[in-house]
């Protein structure tokens, strides 16, 4: 059964669509369901099922947990496919119908799986989402609120993937020379350390190019790092690690970023995406078959994503730099993401910014809400906010509709696919559970 034809999944999606925060947002937006239906709830449920202890802000809804964790497991793997949207997956599965049965790799995987839709968090962007996976809390609580973020104590807008000022993001790690401490910037407890203290082995399998990156170093404390190069290397590292310690309880984090990379460069509708996803499905299918043949049997493999992807063709219409009258109302360049910009206005220019903005763009293209209202309403999470969260989101949130976005960098616009916003395409992701 295709995910889109499953009554359980459709009921959940309807529940998510009906969930509305006390905030004036367009009806078309899919708002994060932090109360048990978001990606921030996955690792709290994993921690509970491995150790019977509480972690993070809250577990998945009981009906989701019953579907994803039908019994106890000694080993749990969470495979994170960066940028895999739920609707994109459903469309891909229909494309597989045109192939010979033996080449429908993802259909063969899902025939052995339970699929559950979840919402991403806000902003639906990797730096914030990965931090939610590793902390089990929403962005308001952990404080990573965008791809680019105003760091008031350093006096700079920092890139939260590369840990450098946004103007020099290609030179990773420059923030460390300014006093940014990667070891304590995230104050929320991390799942690797939490599980290690309870005797559970935590492994982090990431590509060798990012395994020692600033973001990885910030999050994977307590985890054993197993770098890989080709995709097959990731799966062999994983199965060999399980085979080497079959009786030792473990949580295994497997991150694959190429799906997101292609979507940014070419757009999620480009045929390169399907070709690469097919290859990933084959390796996943073979790994499941190998585990079912050789064990360990008490293993659960989960596949999920941090966000989906929206095709946003390059368009100078969305270039903020063309509008000097707007720029002169800003205290600094916007931060956040192109699909969820944070606006900091000069003193006394808050309303002027809004007025001038809508002289150039329409309300059919962008919504706008006061940033602090969004924080208070729970758009970034329902828990106690991080002490610096309020200063990291500015005065206004600009909320693109449809395929709109805001570009403010002086650099040429290099990407076609984007995320970060509140469209269903960006916000709805799958959680696939496969028992071994």
Task: Walk me through this protein's architecture.
The protein is of the alpha/beta class. The chain has helices at 7-18, 42-51, 62-68, 86-96, 105-110, 126-135, 139-142, 191-197, 214-219, 231-244, 258-266, 271-294, 324-327, 350-360, 371-377, 424-427, and strands at residues 75-81, 113-119, 148-151, 156-159, 164-165, 201-205, 224-225, 250-256, 299-304, 310-311, 335-337, 340-343, 366-370, 396-400, 417-418, 428-435. Helices cover 33% and strands 17% of the residues. A 7-stranded mixed sheet has the order 2-16-9-1-8-6-7, sandwiched between helices. It has a 4-stranded antiparallel sheet with strand order 11-12-14-13. A 3-stranded antiparallel sheet has the order 3-4-5, with no helix packed on it. The longest helix has 24 residues, at 271-294.
Helix-strand layout with pairing:
Elements: H1 7-18, H2 42-51, H3 62-68, E1 75-81, H4 86-96, H5 105-110, E2 113-119, H6 126-135, H7 139-142, E3 148-151, E4 156-159, E5 164-165, H8 191-197, E6 201-205, H9 214-219, E7 224-225, H10 231-244, E8 250-256, H11 258-266, H12 271-294, E9 299-304, E10 310-311, H13 324-327, E11 335-337, E12 340-343, H14 350-360, E13 366-370, H15 371-377, E14 396-400, E15 417-418, H16 424-427, E16 428-435
Helix pairs in contact: 10-12, 11-12
State the gist of this model:
The chain has 436 residues and is an alpha/beta fold. Helix content is 33%, strand content 17%.
Identify the strand order in the major beta sheet.
2-16-9-1-8-6-7
Please report the distance between the alpha carbons of the first and last residues: 20 Å
In one word, what is the shape?
Answer: globular
Under CATH, the topology of the largest domain can be stated as Alkaline Phosphatase, subunit A
């Amino acid at each position: 059964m295709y995910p889109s034809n499953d009554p359980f999944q459709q009921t959940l999606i309807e529940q998510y669509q009906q969930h509305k925060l006390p905030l004036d947002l367009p009806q078309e937006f899919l708002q994060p369901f932090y109360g048990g239906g978001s990606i921030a709830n996955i690792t709290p449920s994993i921690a509970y099922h491995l150790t019977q202890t509480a972690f993070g802000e809250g577990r998945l809804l009981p009906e989701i947990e019953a579907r994803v964790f039908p019994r106890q497991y000694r080993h749990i793997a969470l495979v994170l496919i960066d940028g895999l949207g739920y609707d994109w997956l459903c469309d891909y599965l229909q494309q597989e119908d045109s192939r010979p049965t033996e080449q429908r790799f993802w259909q063969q995987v899902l025939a052995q799986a339970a699929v559950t839709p979840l919402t991403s968090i806000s902003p639906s962007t990797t730096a914030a989402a990965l931090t939610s996976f590793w902390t089990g809390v929403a962005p308001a609580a952990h404080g990573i609120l965008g791809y680019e973020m105003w760091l008031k104590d350093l006096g700079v807008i920092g890139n939260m993937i590369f840990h450098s000022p946004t103007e020099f993001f290609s030179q990773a790690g420059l923030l460390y020379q300014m006093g940014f401490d990667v070891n304590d910037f995230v104050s929320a407890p991390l799942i690797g350390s939490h599980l290690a203290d309870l005797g559970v082995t935590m492994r982090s399998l990431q590509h060798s190019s990012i395994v020692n990156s600033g973001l990885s170093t910030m999050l994977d404390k307590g985890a054993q790092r197993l770098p890989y190069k080709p995709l097959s290397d990731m799966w062999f590292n994983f199965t060999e690690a399980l085979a080497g310690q079959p009786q030792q309880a473990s949580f295994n984090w497997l991150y694959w970023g190429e799906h997101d990379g292609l979507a940014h460069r070419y757009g999620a509708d480009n045929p390169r995406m399907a070709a690469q996803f097919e290859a990933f499905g084959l390796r996943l299918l073979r790994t499941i078959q190998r585990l079912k043949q050789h064990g360990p049997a008490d293993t659960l493999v989960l596949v999920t994503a941090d966000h989906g992807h929206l095709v946003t063709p390059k368009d100078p219409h969305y270039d903020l730099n063309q509008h000097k009258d707007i720029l002169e109302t800003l205290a600094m360049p916007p931060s956040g993401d192109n699909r969820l910009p944070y606006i900091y206005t000069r003193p006394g220019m808050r309303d002027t910014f809004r007025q001038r903005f809508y002289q150039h763009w329409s309300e059919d293209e962008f919504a706008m809400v006061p940033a602090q209202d969004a924080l208070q309403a729970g758009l970034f999470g329902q828990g106690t906010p991080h002490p610096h969260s309020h200063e990291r989101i500015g005065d206004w949130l600009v909320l693109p509709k449809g395929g709109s976005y805001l570009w403010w960098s002086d650099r040429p616009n290099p990407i076609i696919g984007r995320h970060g916003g509140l469209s269903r395409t960006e916000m709805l992701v799958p959680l696939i559970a496969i028992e071994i």
